[in-house]
Design a protein that fits this description.
Oligomer: heterodimer
Number of strands of chain A: 13
Number of domains of chain A: 2
Distance between the termini of chain B: 27 Å
CATH class of the largest domain in chain A: Mainly Alpha
Helix content of chain A: 40-55%
Domain EfeO-type cupredoxin-like (chain A): 35-115
Radius of gyration of chain B: 22 Å
Number of helices of chain A: 11
Number of strands of chain B: 9
Largest sheet of chain A: 5 strands, mixed
Structural class of chain A: alpha+beta
Distance between the termini of chain A: 21 Å
Keywords (chain A): Signal
Strand order of the largest sheet of chain A: 5-11-10-7-8
GO cellular component, one term (chain A): periplasmic space
CATH superfamily of the largest domain in chain A: M75 peptidase, HXXE motif
CATH topology of the largest domain in chain A: A middle domain of Talin 1
Helix content of chain B: 10-25%
Domain Imelysin-like (chain A): 142-370
InterPro entries (chain A): EfeM/EfeO_iron_uptake, EfeO_Cupredoxin, Imelysin-like, Imelysin-like_EfeO/Algp7, Imelysin_sf, Iron_uptake_EfeM/EfeO
Radius of gyration of chain A: 20 Å
Number of helices of chain B: 12
Largest sheet of chain B: 9 strands, antiparallel
Number of domains of chain B: 2
CATH architecture of the largest domain in chain A: Up-down Bundle
Strand content of chain B: 15-25%
Shape of chain A: globular
Shape of chain B: globular
Chain lengths: 377, 437
């Protein structure tokens, strides 16, 4: 059952979850829900889900965004484990989500503005379809996280395209607005991206890591031009290269199969990113949008842990409790620094506020560093 | 003597057990006779080179359990790493659990073992080690770890009782007053809990603080810390009096471990002094005192000796021959002026001028690099233990801050006060048990 769940981005960007082994090709297969997709009406302030009780099996949602902000829709299991999600639902558009749900209680969430916990609702799934094999606790995480990676890379590609277009059009204001948004999707899956050593420095390298004979390119090069001189008239080629590199890394990331141990180490690596690069303001030294990255790293770490949750609950329930409490603490701490749909600039935070953030990350990273050994045993 | 069996085990039964990083157990000053025999053989294997007997004592261990905390009357070690923590949890149970965890880790580390039960290299490859490893192979080096509780642990700045212990706050722990000339930086002053790690090996002291800070993440956060080298006081008659960075002997008239009567009178909180949980404990005042090294060095020998009130060479009080001669404050010179100036440090700090108040000083020199203007960022990290700071440190420092001629060369930049509870009695006891009972 190990490799039976996967996800492919369909032509129109609709994410289609193929079912368990026997139902592999069932793109047009009827759902076992109430006949037809569950209608989700998303606005900037509401998230109306057509029903709150469905039968176990494949469930599909049709999410329509009638708000003014870009939206996302998630189905979460306990501990915010992502069972399925659609990202980047532009105003006026509809997208479909199909997700395989065993019996249990779940939460649905719309995220207008693509940030925060979202507008939550309960979803009860009953029945016995799609029983999960007993050894699934550790075979599932990779598939579950792969869904997450694929959704993030799709959005990364879209937002990078928009960012590159704005840079090439010389639209400084638009490029500045898109910069931290595109980077959010990058930062959520950074350990995966970083595993492709040659591409990472081209996309995300900071000025000081550029070696002799190598050009300073990628996000941070354009960031520097946007925020220091405001002159991006010569950045067209760099922008094109960025998009080429992002496309390459997206293809690689989507093909990558991470082991549970890699997931555990990735969850820790994301927090190390926060501790070493974001708290200090080094990562976004020109734009000072470090808190966007901070939150994206945090979300990525949480997604990796959520994918491992069934295994952790079996093997180390106390650790799960500790992680839940510390994730909540970090979220509450960074939550104080929201600004609209985004985040305050690093330079707007006092030293005391930064220390509080640092303390909260340390408190989370210590227990997270214990996950790998639990998964490996 | 469970220490003994644990220490005997590692060479034979290291697999899957805590790997003792320090198999060198030699005769320390007191109380480690139980482990000495075991160590003799194993120690030679590890060290590989000869050490003089004196070095063996300096490498040995100091008993962790006892009536009083170690690290107060323990003969002052050469090195210090001191840290003040803020408690960042609101959860009393988590704080108590941390104090228990800390106590267990400190008992292990002071015995020369790893901070955690698994050790620096004893665990599975996927897990981060529960000891950070930089003390592997090093002897205990007389490591002592001493804990104290600051006023803000009891009530926060708004007066809120943080952990249900406000009614147990001793009167002696009332905030220190502002002294003339204080230039205190809040970010390196105060703190809810302090940990003093002293050792003859700086790596061993740093290892202790680093591992305790790591264990505490999520419950406490490092507020400030200070490294010290070169003890500036002797706390035992067996020790020679060391010099501070002004080049003078410091701590000649210090309270010493041998003065049993004085220690009761001046050092240890006695029954009835305050809340019972502090009986057998002591109050610690720390002051980071920046020295204006360069201007001091340009002042004449005569001026330096006038300011201190002692000769620079022997440390004898002015007008006397030997270091330990009693100063004669009444003596006048040919010019009719006091031989020991009215504004000299030794006079103003002397017990006879302060109602008999004495301190057990345990400070260290510090050099925190330079200050960007080409001057050494250096001075004295002053530490003094006492029975009641408001009857001892406060009147003495009030005198000094007003009149001491040395003030021209000093700046107090950090200040803190802590109540250090009595000793941890046994494996079932822990730091703060009586406070949180």
């Amino acid at each position: 059952m190990r490799t039976t769940r996967f996800i492919v981005p369909a032509a129109a960007g609709v994410l289609v979850v193929a079912g368990l082994a026997g139902c592999g090709g069932g793109d047009d297969k009827e759902t076992k829900g109430a006949g037809g997709p569950i209608v989700v009406k998303a606005t900037d302030t509401a998230c109306e889900v057509g029903t709150t009780e469905v039968d176990a099996g494949q469930v599909s949602f049709k999410v329509t965004n009638s708000g003014a902000k870009v939206n996302e829709f998630y189905v979460y299991a306990a501990g915010d484990r992502v069972m399925g999600e659609v990202e980047n639902i532009a105003p006026g558009l509809s997208r479909e989500l199909r997700v395989e749900l065993p019996a249990g209680t779940y939460e649905t969430a719309c995220k207008p503005g693509m940030s925060g916990r979202g507008i939550r609702g309960a979803l009860k799934v009953s029945g016995t379809a799609a029983s999960v094999a007993p050894d699934a606790a550790l075979s599932q995480p990779t598939a579950s996280y792969q869904r997450y990676v694929t959704s993030q890379t799709a959005a990364l590609l879209t937002k990078t395209e928009e960012f590159v277009a704005a840079v090439k059009a010389g639209d400084v204001a638009k490029a500045k607005a898109l910069y931290p948004v595109a980077r959010t999707y990058w930062e959520r899956i950074e350990p995966v991206a970083e595993s492709f050593g040659d591409l990472d420095p081209k996309i995300d390298g900071r000025e000081e890591v550029v070696e002799e004979g190598m050009q300073f390119t990628g996000f941070h090069r354009i960031e520097k031009d946007l925020w220091t001189t405001g002159d991006i008239s010569k950045d067209g080629a760099i922008a094109d290269q960025l998009l080429t590199d992002v496309k390459a890394i997206v293809a690689k990331a989507n093909a990558e199969k991470l082991t549970p141990l890699q997931l555990a180490n990735g969850a820790k690596a994301l927090l190390d990113e926060v501790a070493s690069g974001k708290i200090t303001g080094e990562e976004e030294r020109y734009s000072h949008t470090d808190l966007w990255d901070f939150n994206a790293n945090l979300e990525g770490s949480k997604a990796a842990i959520a994918a491992l949750r069934p295994a952790l609950e079996q093997r180390a329930p106390e650790l799960v409790k500790q992680l839940d409490a510390e994730f909540a603490n970090v979220e509450a701490t960074i939550g104080k620094h929201r600004a609209g749909d985004g985040w305050k600039l690093h330079t707007q935070l006092s030293k005391t506020e930064l220390k509080e953030l640092s303390d909260s990350i340390n408190a989370l990273a210590e227990p997270i560093s214990k996950v790998a050994a639990v998964v490996a045993r | 003597m469970s220490e003994q069996s644990t220490e005997a085990a590692p060479v034979v039964a290291a697999r899957g057990k805590s790997l003792s990083r320090r198999r060198v157990m030699t005769l320390a000053g007191v109380g480690v006779a139980g482990v000495a025999g075991v160590a003799a053989g194993a120690g030679a294997l590890v060290r590989g080179s000869d050490h003089a007997a004196a070095n063996d004592a300096a490498a040995g261990s100091v008993p962790f359990h006892g009536e009083h905390q170690a690290g107060i009357t323990t003969p002052a070690q050469d090195r210090l790493h001191f840290v003040a923590f803020d408690v960042i949890t609101k959860d009393r149970a988590r704080l108590i659990a941390l104090l228990q965890e800390w106590t267990a880790a400190a008992a292990r580390m002071t015995a020369g073992k790893d901070a955690g039960l698994i050790g620096a290299v004893g665990g599975v490859p996927e897990a981060p080690p529960d000891d950070t490893g930089e003390a592997l192979g090093l002897p205990p080096s007389q490591l002592t770890i001493t804990v104290g509780f600051g006023p803000t642990l009891f009530r926060d700045a708004q007066g809120k009782d943080r952990f249900g212990i406000a009614d147990k706050r001793p009167a002696a722990l009332a905030d220190l007053p502002h002294f003339a000339g204080d230039a205190l930086k809040p970010e390196i002053s105060g703190g809810d809990i302090c940990v003093q790690a002293c050792s003859n090996d700086p790596q061993v002291a740093v290892h202790a603080i680093r591992n305790l800070a790591r264990i505490g993440m999520g419950v406490v956060s490092v507020r400030w810390s200070q490294l010290g080298f070169g003890r500036t006081s002797s706390t035992s008659r067996d020790q020679a009096t060391p010099r501070n960075l002004f080049g003078f002997k410091d701590g000649t008239a210090n309270l010493k471990a041998e003065d049993a009567g004085l220690l009761r009178e001046q050092l240890w909180a006695q029954p009835g002094d305050g809340p019972d949980w502090m009986t057998g404990g002591s109050y610690l005042v720390t002051r980071k005192i920046r020295m204006q090294i360069e201007t001091w060095d340009r002042s004449s020998l005569a001026e330096q000796e006038q300011i201190v009130g002692r000769t620079k060479g022997s440390g004898a009080p002015l007008g006397k021959r030997d270091e330990f001669d009693e100063p004669d404050f009444a003596a006048k010179g040919d010019d009719g002026q006091p031989v020991i100036a009215e504004t000299s440090h030794v006079r103003l700090a002397h017990p006879t001028l302060n109602n008999g108040a004495r301190l057990l000083r345990r400070g260290y020199n510090f050099v925190d690099g330079s200050d960007g203007l080409g001057r050494l960022d250096a001075g004295l990290f002053f530490m003094a233990y006492q029975r009641d700071p408001h009857k001892q440190f406060v009147p003495i420092q009030t005198q000094l801050s007003r009149h001491d001629a040395m003030n021209e060369y000093l700046r107090h930049v950090s200040s803190a006060l802590f109540a250090c509870p009595p000793g941890v009695r046994d494996d079932a006891d822990f730091w703060g048990r009586a406070l949180f009972a």
